[in-house]
Amino acid sequence: MIAFLESLSRLPGVEFVLLISHDGVPIAHAGGTSESAREESLAALAAAWLSDVSAAVAPLGWRAPERMCLRAARGTLVLRYSASASLVVLLGRETAPEDVRLSMDGTLARIERARTGRAQAADAAHRPDHGVAARAEPDAAIPYREDTLPVEEGVHPAAHPEHPPGN
Prior knowledge:
It is a single chain. β3 and β4 form a beta hairpin. By secondary structure, the protein is of the alpha+beta class. It has helices spanning about 1-10, 35-55, 100-125, and strands at about 15-20, 25-30, 65-70, 75-80, 85-90.
């Protein structure tokens, strides 16, 4: 996971990258100096900011924003929300949030893929069949449904076998 964050932190203009849980706990970081106080305060700030914005738009019927940017005099804070965690990137003054948008999306997608891959592997290891399917026949290219519903009310397609469909 840190390798994914390090590739994002090496982009020009990116000062610090932080992966946080939704309740504001830092999970991993890359770039800059390693100060736990800075990580914790930035994680808490980002989680509170996301919570406040989500609470503000909830009465409008909108869902929580997936991407937020906060520009300041000394830089920009960009937050990208996902189902399991949030990615926070601190940018320098001269860097625009649009410059890291695609990179942030790719990094978060890799993290989600790695997380779901590990969860599926753990589930497969705990199954009695060790993740091997015990089916006699493989799935067909075109799925077949045995319990088809009649096209007309009260008439079943197999009710008149002497008349093929379409005649």
